[in-house]
Each structure stands twice: as C-alpha cells, then as structure tokens.
Write a structure and sequence with these properties.
single chain; alpha+beta; globular; two-stranded antiparallel sheet; 203 residues; tt1808, chain A
Length: 203
C-alpha cells in the first residue's frame, strides 16, 4: 500500500494530520518523515535508561518520556521523537501534544540515524533554550557520548567509557539531573548485534 506523505504543512497542520495517522511522523521544514521501528537492543537500552531515570527523578517535579513523546524545537518546528526526553519545567507538566521545554534529550543510535542524530538533529536541539544535556548511546556496541551546555553557552563533549579512570566499571553521569550509574546498567540484559571488546555488560 502506498504511503503518501503530504508536503508544505504548517506546524498546526502537521499536528492535526499526524493525530489521524497509524504511525508516528517527525516534522521538518514542512515535510513529514515516517518513524520506523527500532531493533530490540535499541528498545532495551532506551527502557533500561528510562527506568533508571524515572526512579531517580520521582518526586522532583520532572517528567520522563520515552519513544512516543514529541519534542517541539520552536513554534515553527521541527518536531522530533527522541528516545528519551526529560523536562523539569512546570509548563510541560500538563503538556498533551509535545514537550516544549526539555532539560535532557537522549537518542539511541542506529546505523541509519546516527549521522543525523549527531549532526543536523543536534543543531536543531541546540536551539532549545532549556536544553542542558544531549546524550547519544550506541545501539550496536557499548559507548556513550554526552554533550553538556556550559555556563558560557558552549557545548562540551564527554565520551564514556574512554576517559574514565576505571574502565572495568565505568560510571555514566547526566549532570543536568545529578544522576550517575554504572554503564553496565544502561546495557543490562542487552544483546548487541556486533561483538564487543572488553567486558561483557550483560548480567
């Protein structure tokens, strides 16, 4: 069955149109892009981190969403579906259509999306004034990159586990939420498609 996607949509048109579709679509510059299903490791990694973050922020006035929550970059778009988004802004507590004021966004990388997630998508995300941290988790092998916004407005990269003093038990930090956990928990019970060097992170 042909999947005919409209072009030239306004953001308001997109929100109305997408609400009637059986699958999710991201929105960029008047065009919509169908969201394809991820792998099981991709899903498992996202759920692991969601569970850890949900427990960590419980009672702190923060909202954690996974997969099905849109993020609005600006009133004119784009709209994206990150794997995990955390907002601690009261204005998002009762949001229905999209998160507007994220503090943390995390994407689980796949070969088909890694270039866009690291490049143009990050450029758009950086336009969100409330965003403080952007995490990229490799879905094919163990590895995490985290971009943090400094007080001067620059984005600095921290790579895990390469720059840690104890590579046999690396700790991942999400400074925006005052959160840390062993990298092993992010990849707990995740079967990766490619062989991994070093420790086996499955429990």
């Amino acid at each position: 069955m042909a999947n005919i996607q409209p072009q030239g949509l306004t953001p308001a048109d997109y929100l109305v149109w997408e609400a009637q579709q059986p699958i999710k679509y991201e929105y960029l510059e008047g065009r919509v892009y169908a969201m394809t299903g991820g792998t099981l490791p991709h899903n498992d990694i996202a759920l692991n981190l969601y569970s850890l973050l949900r427990s960590h922020v419980r009672g702190r006035g923060c909202r954690v969403n996974v997969a099905d929550a849109k993020v609005r970059v600006s009133a004119n778009g784009p709209y994206f579906y990150p794997d995990i988004v955390v907002s601690c802004d009261d204005r998002d507590r009762r949001a229905i259509e999209a998160v507007h004021y994220p503090k943390l966004i995390i994407e689980v990388l796949s070969p088909s999306t890694a270039g866009f997630d690291r490049g143009d998508k990050f450029k758009f995300y950086r336009q969100i004034p409330t965003l403080q941290e952007y995490g990229l988790i490799d879905g094919d092998k163990v590895g995490v990159d985290c971009y943090r916004k400094t007080s001067g407005g620059k984005w600095e990269l921290t790579t895990y586990p390469d720059d840690l003093g104890h590579p046999e038990n690396p700790i991942v930090e999400l400074v925006s939420l005052d959160f840390s956990c062993p990298l092993a928990l992010v990849y707990e019970e995740v079967t990766l498609a490619q062989p991994r060097s070093g420790n086996d992170y499955r429990s």
